[in-house]
């Protein structure tokens, strides 16, 4: 800064605006002597006063600082250049945002497409029964998923004759396959997808053939009994009605699980989990209860971040993770409910009130 040039320009601008030193001093909250010293080049104005002077005289702050007033043509050139730079930056920013949004949209669409094609109609449940006066099927159930196949039935012998052997057959396209041979009237077969120890998954999921029992008693008398299949459930719905009760076959699958009552009554039940979407004033949350693992999951979506809660009920451990929009971890804790630390109490109290009390008690 050249104090003399700056002082001369301030004096010129003051006089141009018909101001006295006293009037300018009042606007800057300084004494008249300070203004006099600045105009004489004895002292330089502070940065804050330079900003104030630029607003008072409607000039750029760098003009005050350099002591040189830019002419109209130069101002228009500067303004034009700044506008071009701003417009160019704004255009590039908009393009970047659009491209980034499209990429995110494609990724999200791909995820939902993958989930849809791997989950939609991936669960089928059939009741098994037969029409015969000598035998009756109790608790007959066939469950087909993309993870496993479960075939269950209890055969009730109405004649009370001694059974030597029970053979389960599966016939499709005139091909007959023996699934299992046993002397037990209770069958409970579980097949993991890919192993196919008992069943061919693709055949079952695409075209249910014919199951039949070959029952041989100790007198070598043979009965052939065709098993009837009645489809009672398949997950073709995209939206579930939480007030609609699930079929009894699904309850049978979970009969030995201690599922919290509020989860059974309020959540949507599909396959081996219960889900519920809730919306609060500050966030949206997706809640999931995993039956087999006995775990409760809450994913909270806020404006600029996400919070994931995982509560292992058996281990009494609460895992807390906070992520930003770029999926970077901001903070995480693992809370042992049996030994809560001082810095974990606030998080635990929040989870306890909002989830344990609300849904798990």
Spatial gap, N to C terminus? 73 Å
Rg computed from alpha carbons, rounded to a whole number of angstroms: 39 Å
Counted by DSSP, the helix tally is: 10
Helix content: 25-40%
Oligomer: single chain
> How many E-type strands?
15
What sort of overall outline do the alpha carbons produce when their principal axes are compared? elongated
The main sheet orders its strands as 5-4-7-8-1-2-3-6
What is the string of SSEs from the N terminus onward?
HHHHHHEEEEEEHEEHHEEEEEEEH
Protein structure class: alpha+beta
The biggest beta sheet is recorded as:
8 strands, antiparallel
* Share of β-strand residues: 25-35%
Uncertain runs are 240-256
Mean pLDDT: 81
What key attributes describe this structure?
361 residues, alpha+beta, eight-stranded antiparallel beta sheet, seven-stranded antiparallel beta sheet, 10 helices, 15 strands, 36% helix, elongated
Q: Would you kindly provide a written description of the structure presented here, covering whatever features stand out?
A:
With 361 residues, the chain is of the alpha+beta class. Helices cover 36% and strands 33% of the residues. It has helices at residues 3-16, 21-28, 32-39, 47-57, 61-66, 72-119, 201-206, 248-253, 261-266, 345-360; strands spanning 124-129, 135-144, 148-157, 163-172, 175-182, 186-192, 210-217, 222-234, 268-270, 273-279, 284-290, 295-301, 305-312, 317-324, 329-336. The strands form 2 sheets. Strands 5-4-7-8-1-2-3-6 form an 8-stranded antiparallel β-sheet. A 7-stranded antiparallel β-sheet has the order 9-10-11-12-13-14-15. It is elongated. It starts with a helix and ends with a helix.
């Amino acid at each position: 800064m050249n104090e003399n040039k700056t002082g001369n320009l301030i004096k010129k601008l003051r006089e141009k605006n018909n101001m006295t030193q006293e009037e300018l001093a009042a606007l800057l909250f300084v004494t008249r002597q300070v203004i006099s010293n600045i105009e004489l080049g004895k002292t330089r104005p502070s940065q804050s006063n330079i900003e104030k002077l630029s607003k008072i005289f409607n000039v750029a702050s760098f003009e005050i600082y350099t002591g040189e007033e830019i002419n109209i043509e130069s101002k228009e050139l500067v303004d034009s250049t700044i506008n071009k730079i701003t417009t160019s930056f704004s255009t590039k920013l908009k393009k970047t945002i659009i491209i980034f949004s499209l990429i995110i949209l494609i990724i999200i669409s791909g995820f939902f497409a993958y989930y849809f094609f791997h989950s939609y109609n991936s669960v089928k449940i059939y009741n098994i029964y037969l029409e015969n006066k000598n035998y009756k099927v109790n608790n007959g159930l066939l469950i087909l998923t993309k993870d496993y196949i479960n075939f269950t039935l209890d055969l009730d012998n109405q004649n009370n004759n001694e059974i030597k052997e029970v053979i389960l057959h599966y016939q499709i396209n005139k091909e007959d396959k023996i699934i299992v041979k046993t002397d037990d009237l209770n069958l409970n077969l579980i097949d993991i997808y890919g192993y196919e120890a008992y069943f061919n998954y693709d055949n079952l999921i695409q075209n249910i053939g014919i199951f039949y029992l070959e029952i041989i008693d100790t007198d070598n008398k043979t009965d052939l009994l065709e098993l009837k299949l009645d489809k009672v459930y398949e997950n073709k719905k995209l939206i579930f009605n939480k007030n609609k009760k699930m079929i009894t076959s699904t309850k049978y699958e979970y009969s030995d699980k201690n599922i919290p009552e509020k989860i059974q009554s309020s959540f949507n039940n599909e396959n081996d989990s219960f889900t519920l979407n809730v919306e609060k004033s500050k966030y949206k949350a997706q809640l999931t209860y995993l039956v087999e693992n006995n775990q409760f999951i809450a994913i909270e979506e806020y404006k600029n971040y996400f919070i994931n809660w995982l509560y292992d009920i058996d281990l009494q451990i609460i895992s807390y993770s906070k992520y930003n929009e770029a999926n970077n971890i901001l903070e995480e804790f693992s809370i042992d409910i049996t030994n809560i630390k001082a810095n974990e109490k606030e998080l635990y109290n929040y989870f306890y009130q909002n989830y344990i009390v609300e849904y798990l008690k």
